[in-house]
Amino acid sequence: MKPNFLVIQVDQLTDRALKAYGGRYCNEAIDSLFSSGVAFNSCTCQYPLCQPSRASLWSGLYPHQTNILSNGRRWPVEDLADSVPTLGSVFKSNGYKCVHFGKTHDAGALRGFEIENEDAIEIGENPQFPYNQDTFRDVYTSKKANEFLSSYGWDKPLLMVVDFVNPHNICGYVGKKKDTRIEDPSGLPELPSNYNFDDIENRSKSIQYICCSHNRQSQVATWTENEYRGYLGAYYHYLSLVDKQIGTLIESLTNTKGYDNTYIVFLSDHGDSMAARGAVTKQVAMYHETVNVPLVFSGPLIEKKGMIDALAENLDLFPTLCDLASIDIPSTCEGISLKDAIINGIRPQREYAVSEWFTEWGYTISPARMIATEDYRYIYYLEDGKEELYSLKLDPYEKYNVAEKAEYEIVLKKMRLYLEDFIKRSNDPFYHQTVYAPVRWRSHKVGYHNHVGIAAPMEDA
Quick check: 304 pLDDT over 90? Predict the structure, then answer.
């Protein structure tokens, strides 16, 4: 009998926000998945932005291979080519009923799924943590997904994806609260240890001037520590909302006859800066907070429990689900199957993980590549040829770039070789990609609080 799969994805969740990864607060439903399953302590998303990341996830290809490199606007994207096998198309052709609820933003990569229309159900206002369509859509998604599970006849094996938007509502929070001042921060979360950006002079211009390429960062130029603590309070609040919805979803599944034969997967498309280095939301920065996401396999079919100390990528979802379902893995898949790790506790072999950046909306274009090993993170920015290197054991919060320190010369050379290996084996046109960063968006004194005027793009998505 073929297994069933419930894939739960949330939007903009860095792993550090969760208790399993050292986070401060409990999220009952999400925490229960970790306590009853197998998680990976280091999972990298392929692009810290919604559409490129999601297209990569469902196709099993890196963003430069899908050519879906932005959220649109001045850098429009075409849908994924019909010739590319997708998770939905492969499982559908192997007898699965494939259904999707919630946020899509996939550029055609959800081909093969029956997709429930996106809609919203409004709930009451919250003056401290205002709601927008992100939260309202999750209410609708939860309702429809639960209704489906309650009525499904289990006549066919099921691949069900439920894509919640929160805690993405944090983007709208910035816009609503950009001019608000918090006088009393009592009860709000403390700032992370890397809130102060002491090393900003030693970073790429792409990082130094995020405030000029990212509207949300420009909106917080006048914020103090109190407002950043309010931001974190809001982020955790939106996370708590989606946690409750995940709880009802798991309960609905538990009450079906298909539950005992179902794998539950929990992950996110990308992370959030969470006030690290005085940053909000996500953009060209490729540090832990924006590219490291949770990945857990749970449910009654999972006998192993605990955290696996190994490098994983979001790209691994496609081949792993195929392997668990005894479906041939398409030759196009760039990820690796994690089945042996999930079922037998055998550590997967991967030397490095990769994330990419090109642009958000096309207003500025700052191509970058991130290479992460278990011990180091290396980032190369095409705009100015700046290299960044961090010792993840000695400096896990990536406060100091050591790329130019003589004692790291051997490590730097090795990370460069990994980048070259990735470019060669994946046919990556990285060095030939467009760079577009007008002088007017690289002109003020370095420091996000020094930003003046509006930024290049108009808003987040």
Answer: no
Element (H, E) at 229: helix 225-254
**Alpha-carbon span 423 to 376, nearest angstrom:** 19
Q: Using omega within 30 degrees of 0 as the cis cutoff, is the peptide bond preceding 167 cis?
A: yes
Cα 440 from chain centre: 30
* d(C-alpha 354, C-alpha 350), whole Å: 11
Q: Output 399-407 pairs: Cβ under 8 A, ≥24 positions apart.
A: 399/194, 399/198, 399/199, 400/198, 400/199, 400/202, 401/199, 401/202, 401/203, 403/378, 404/202
**Per-residue burial over 152-188, b = 16 or more CB atoms within 10 Å of its CB, e = otherwise:** beeeebbbbbbbbbbbbbbbbbbebbbeeebeebeeb
Helix (H, G, I), strand (E, B) or coil at 184: coil
* Average pLDDT for 187-205: 97
Direct distance between the N- and C-terminal alpha carbons of the chain, in angstroms, rounded to an integer: 41
Q: pLDDT-derived band of residue 321, with 50, 70 and 90 as boundaries?
A: very high
The share of the chain scoring above pLDDT 70, in percent, equals 99
The answer to whether the CB of 390 falls within 8 A of the CB of 342 is no
Q: Cβ atoms within 10 A of the Cβ of 309, count?
A: 10
Q: SS in 3 state form for 297-358?
A: EECCCCCCCEEEEEEEEHHHHHHHHHHHCCCCCCCCCCCCCCHHHHHHCCCCCCCCEEEEEC
Tokens representing 219 are 């909106």
Report the alpha-carbon distance of residue 162 to residue 408 in Å, rounded.
44
Look up the pTM and report it.
0.97
Alpha helix segments (H runs only) across 78-183: 87-93, 133-151, 169-177
Instruction: Tell how strand 38-44 and strand 306-313 pair up.
Output: parallel
8 Å CB contact between 95 and 156: yes
Residue 444: phi and psi, rounded to 5, are -80, 170
Q: Say if CB 62 and CB 46 are below 8 A apart.
A: yes
Q: Round the average pLDDT of the chain to a whole number and report it.
A: 96
Tell me the C-alpha to C-alpha distance, in Å, between residue 118 and each of 57, 163, 198. Answer: 20, 10, 43
Phi, psi of 383, deg, nearest 5? -55, -45
Measure the CA dihedral 187/188/194/195, to 10°: -130
**What Rg value do the Cα atoms of the chain yield, rounded?**
21
As a whole number of angstroms, the distance between CA 309 and CA 322 comes to 23
DSSP letter assigned to residue 365: B
Taking the C-alpha atoms of residue 22 and residue 269, their distance in angstroms, rounded to an integer, is: 20
List the alpha helices (DSSP H) in 178-214. 205-208, 210-213
